[in-house]
Specification:
- By secondary structure, the protein is mainly alpha-helical.
- Helices cover 65% and strands 2% of the residues.
- The strands form two sheets. The protein has a two-stranded parallel ribbon with strand order 1-2. A two-stranded antiparallel ribbon has the order 3-4.
- Helix 27 runs antiparallel to helix 28 and helix 30 runs antiparallel to helix 31.
- The radius of gyration is 34 Å and the shape is flat.
- The protein starts with 21 loop residues before the first helix and ends with a helix.
Length: 665
């Protein structure tokens, strides 16, 4: 029985000193509003501002950790709570959030330490003791867990979850008598809650007291009509009571709630077959096989039904598939032999009958064991073909607790491909983003914009926006204007740079490169010209290779088609940039990306490290470095980097953290 961690009790009231600056207070307030309305990524941007302004305040770290917890970035949440507790060890909710983050990383002993500290400050807190008991259950420390629950129910005698957890402990210890007593107490405390009725009903099922199970599960349905699992379990009780129509009605109800319930379709198919609804039964088994095409027990049941409904070709096909998977399944040969003889395939029937005769002789001589036992029910994971008439029951449930969160809107559930962030370029246009990530700053770019040396504000971006019709017209006119100025000898490097930008945006790479070359002749230390020339050379390779070098390819498939020599001019220009301006982080980043393309992963790490040393807030560098670490099987460091990237605004990092965490588990 799955239990849930509770976040109930995390207070939004934080006792802290008054902020000296009203702006910081307001940003913090707006961040908490965003957090309350479940916009976790945006809220982190506000908390980042507070942390940057006043890094000594614990509050912003706590709330940022809470946002990360809701994004399932458990490593990041734990780290932020560490920071909050380091600054103020008396903030009880920081221990609660860190405890949950640690539980989600299977750090149960560390979580126990957090909840014990929290309980010293708030000994009657239901949530803290609830989660502490869950940690002990995970570690199979059942005596400690029960002791905590005894204390909990003595302090809060109406807390039904405490009695339900005691029931779970008793079941884990295979003490059904005590489990029944615990469930009885839970019903006594709250007979209008479905969960204790479900628990006791399942205990009755285990003890083969099917009438009692039916009664309890019926009570549960009164209070939880939208729980398909309750209907599935009551159907099983009714089946054992030979109430086939009642069982079928329950399967119908379960499938109305959850159309994809595997057990509902499978068992309803069996019961439909028993009462002669053959075509409807075939539909159920077709659904089962659409999910599990190699479920040979379902295939055999469909074969029997096809046989009965006159679909002889389909039936023989199904029988043959089953016998290929289970060559010793005698019932299959017998059914196929009968069908083959019925449709006039005498030769095929005789072959099956001869095989059956030889098998019977072998069995009589003790040479071949009989397969299976044909039980009334079987677990879903059991694959004994002889049990083809048996109803399916669920396997033992995974008892891993999952905390109940009060928040929704989880961006980490979006599908995100495992791809590096792209190259940085100079542009006038950038795709709008729902969440402002980082201001990409470079001293020379800022000076150019401040002095208005170019027609438009220059940006550093790796999210270029395509030109609109109006912008295309504007840049065509700008090219004409800059060309006239150059012809009139008004030219300087910025006029050439303006025209190079126009050409670049218009996808005229050759002319753009020519203008950049002219700039370098005029001023050989103007590093932005080398940077743009490298960008254009990279894009020209993309075009030449039909996009096969694009950084949007999956990590690990990059660089397989090309030689390093093709990238030598790009690498040379980027190295020149770094000689002229060693603090230009974007050149380091692009150099690292080129190394990733060439599968020079150690070189890539070297340059990502340099970029992050220059700019510790460079989110794209954290993201890409994280992917490289993970590809090199350093998952812990990789997830840390992705966590930092998410903290700084690349929200897709949280989806990748979730994917990689599942792979590790």
């Amino acid at each position: 029985m799955k239990r849930r961690l509770s976040l109930i009790g995390i207070s939004w009231i934080w006792i802290c000193s008054l902020f000296a600056q009203i702006n910081t207070e307001r940003v913090m307030s707006v961040g908490k509003n965003a957090l309350f309305f479940e916009d976790y990524v945006l809220s982190m941007q506000y908390f980042n501002q507070v942390i940057n302004a006043k890094p000594y305040l614990a509050e912003a770290y706590f709330y940022r950790g809470l946002a990360k917890l809701n994004l399932e970035d458990y490593i990041g949440a734990e780290a932020d709570c560490d920071e909050a507790i380091g600054r103020n060890p008396f903030v009880v909710n920081a221990y609660q959030v860190r405890g949950i983050a640690r539980i989600r990383q299977n750090k149960y002993k560390e979580a126990i330490g957090d909840y014990k500290k929290a309980l010293k400050m708030d000994p009657v807190n239901t949530t803290f003791r609830h989660n502490l008991a869950l940690c002990h259950i995970h570690l199979e420390e059942y005596a400690d867990a029960r002791a905590q629950l005894d204390t909990l129910t003595s302090i809060h005698p109406r807390y039904i979850e405490g009695y339900m957890m005691k029931t779970e402990i008793s079941l884990r210890q295979k003490d059904t008598v005590q489990a029944m007593s615990d469930a009885d107490k839970a019903i006594e405390v709250d007979r209008f809650s479905a969960e204790p009725w479900i628990a006791r009903g399942l205990i009755y099922l285990q003890r083969a007291k099917y009438a009692d199970a039916d009664a309890d599960l019926t009570e549960a349905i009164r209070f939880s009509m939208k729980n398909d699992g309750v209907y599935i379990n009551r159907a099983l009780a009714r089946y054992h009571l030979r109430n086939l129509r009642g069982a079928m009605a329950d399967y119908d109800a379960a499938l109305e709630i959850n159309k994809s319930n595997f057990i509902g379709h499978y068992n309803r198919g069996l019961l439909r077959a028993q009462v002669g609804e053959d075509n409807a039964a075939i539909e159920d088994f077709n659904y089962v096989l659409s999910i599990e095409p190699d479920n040979w027990i379902a295939v055999f049941n469909r074969a029997l039904l096809r046989d009965r409904t006159g679909d002889y070709k389909g039936a023989i096909q199904d029988y043959s598939s089953v016998l290929k998977a289970y060559p010793n399944f005698m019932e299959g040969y017998a059914q196929r032999a009968q069908l083959r003889r019925r449709i006039g395939d005498i030769k095929g029937a005789q072959a099956d009958e001869l095989l059956l005769l030889n098998a019977q002789i072998s069995i009589s001589q003790g040479k071949r064991p009989v397969i299976g036992k044909n039980s009334p029910t079987r677990k879903k994971s059991d694959k004994n073909i002889q049990d083809y008439r048996s109803l399916v029951v669920a396997d033992a449930e995974d008892n891993t607790p999952a905390y109940k969160t009060l928040y929704r809107g989880k961006v980490q559930n979006k599908e995100v491909a495992i791809r590096p962030q792209g190259m940085f370029v100079l542009s006038y246009y950038e795709k709008p983003d729902d969440v402002k990530r980082q201001v990409n700053h470079a001293k020379t770019v800022a000076q150019i914009n401040a002095q208005r040396l170019l027609p438009k504000r220059l940006l550093l971006t790796n999210a270029e926006a395509p030109l609109t019709d109006i912008q295309i017209k504007e840049h065509t006119q700008s090219i004409d204007l800059q060309t006239r100025r150059i012809a009139n000898r008004e030219s300087n490097k910025y006029i050439y740079f303006a025209r190079a930008m126009d050409y670049y945006l218009m996808q005229d790479f050759d002319n753009a490169t020519a203008d950049l070359n002219a700039i370098i002749e005029i001023d050989s230390i103007f590093y932005l010209a080398y940077f743009m020339r490298a960008t254009i050379a990279y894009k020209m390779i993309e075009v030449e290779k039909d996009g096969k070098t694009d950084m949007t390819k999956e990590l690990g498939t990059l660089g397989t088609e090309f030689q390093k020599g093709e990238y030598a001019p790009i690498i040379a220009d980027l190295e020149t940039v770094l000689k002229l301006e060693p603090e230009f982080a974007f050149a380091c980043y692009n150099r690292a990306n080129i190394a990733v393309l060439l599968k020079d992963y150690q070189v890539a790490l070297k340059y990502y490290d340099k970029a992050l040393k220059i700019d510790p807030y460079f989110s794209d560098a954290y993201y890409n470095r994280g992917l490289v670490h993970i590809y090199l099987e350093d998952g812990e460091q990789g997830i840390k980097d992705l966590s930092k990237a998410g903290e700084l605004g690349i929200y897709s990092a949280y989806s990748l953290i979730k994917q990689f965490t599942k792979k590790v588990e």
